[in-house]
Specification:
Elements lengths: L1 E3 L5 E3 L10 H14 L3 E10 L5 E11 L5 E2 L1 H11 L2 H18 L5 E6 L1 H5 L3 H12 L6 E6 L8 H12 L3 E7 L5 H7 L4 E4 L1 H5 L4 H17 L2 E4 L5 H9 L4 E2 L10 H9 L8
Parallel strand pairs: 4-6, 6-7, 7-8, 8-9, 9-10, 10-11
Antiparallel strand pairs: 1-2, 3-4, 3-11, 4-5
Helix pairs in contact: 1-2, 3-5, 5-6
The structure holds ligand C2E and magnesium ion (MG) (3 copies).
Protein name: EAL domain-containing protein
Organism: Mesorhizobium retamae
């Protein structure tokens, strides 16, 4: 996708150049440059508490922006970072940055950070999170780690041990994209998640009676298990209203707020969001 020319700039991928034909290798090279030159940043997306109408948390999302302003989506660079192991460095940086953001404003109750299975399997991960919290002087209960169910995570004892270490530090453990993988139910059985995020595809399917029934079944199942329920991908007032009727705990999506720089979100935490009366 890009390569350095040895001076000080990055060129976008030239598809005719045989040397750059291996996309994944190129993204890996790009990532290396990006880390060195600090082209990686975090944006944050607000999470609303449906009962109080307040913005209570925000999710950290990684962004890779080329010097010319081109954004490289996480769906492209995260898998490569996972394959090459670079996710370990990127992930540590993301958690440290999130902890510093928590330190900068006591009004921000919680920040959630996505973590890859590669991180959870790496020795010393829980200790590195503890160190990041300690450096920032932030308590573990303000940090949430989002884990995505996936085949590669299945029943891995190192992962389970790591998660229990994180919980001992008071860190919240959330299950991301619930319903999209095959292992979601096994995970619910094994891990006491603080929050489960229902994947946005289920909310979007609510336009049909069948989709709506499915969504309600999932909510019912989770409710009986006990974690807080967060619904992702809220794009309209109608969807927010549906979640209110179903007594959902938390919501997130473009209608609540788009991912943005931390500076622009801080004021949201200081003032309650005005809620429309039903
Ligand atoms: P995710 O963790 O499920 O994050 C939610 C994604 O949905 C984000 O995409 C967000 O911008 C998008 N989104 C939020 N609200 C809406 C909505 O209302 N409608 C629609 N259509 N989309 C919405 P993004 O930022 O492109 O991230 C994609 C994925 O990349 C994330 O999915 C996560 O799995 C991964 N990712 C992002 N940052 C990190 C990171 O720091 N570490 C790791 N390991 N993965 C990350
Ligand atoms: Mg997430
Ligand atoms: Mg995720
Ligand atoms: Mg998600």
């Amino acid at each position: 996708l890009a390569k350095a020319d040895g001076r000080n700039c990055v060129h976008l991928f030239d598809p005719n150049d045989p040397q750059t034909s291996d996309e994944s290798e190129n993204v890996a090279a790009l990532l290396k440059i990006a880390i060195e030159r600090e082209l990686i940043s975090l944006v944050f997306q607000p999470i609303i508490n449906m009962r109080t109408g307040k913005i209570e948390a925000m999710e950290a999302l990684m962004r890779l922006t080329m010097p010319d302003g081109t954004a490289v989506p996480p769906s492209l660079f995260i898998p490569v970072a996972e394959r090459t192991g670079m996710i370990l460095e990127l992930g540590r940086w993301a958690i440290r940055t999130a902890c510093r953001e928590l330190m900068s404003s006591e009004h921000i109750r919680t920040i959630s950070v996505n973590v890859s299975p590669v991180q959870l399997k790496a020795p010393g991960f829980a200790a590195s999170v503890a160190a990041a919290l300690g450096e920032a002087g932030v308590t573990g209960d303000r940090l949430a780690l989002e884990i995505t169910e996936g085949l590669e995570m299945e029943m891995h004892s190192d992962v389970l041990r790591c998660i229990s270490d994180l919980k001992l530090l008071g860190i919240k453990v959330w299950l991301d994209d619930f319903g999209t993988g095959f292992a979601g139910l096994s995970w619910l059985r094994l891990i006491d998640f603080d929050t489960v995020k229902i994947d946005r595809s289920f909310l979007h399917d609510c336009v049909t009676p069948r989709g709506r029934a499915m969504f309600q079944d999932i909510v019912e199942l989770l409710r009986n298990r006990g974690p807080k329920i967060l619904v992702e991908g809220v794009e309209s007032e109608e969807q927010l209203e549906l979640l209110r009727r179903l007594d959902i705990d938390h919501a997130q999506g473009f209608h609540v707020g788009r991912p943005a720089r931390a500076e622009s979100l801080r004021p949201l935490f200081e003032a309650p969001r005005r809620q429309k009366t039903a």
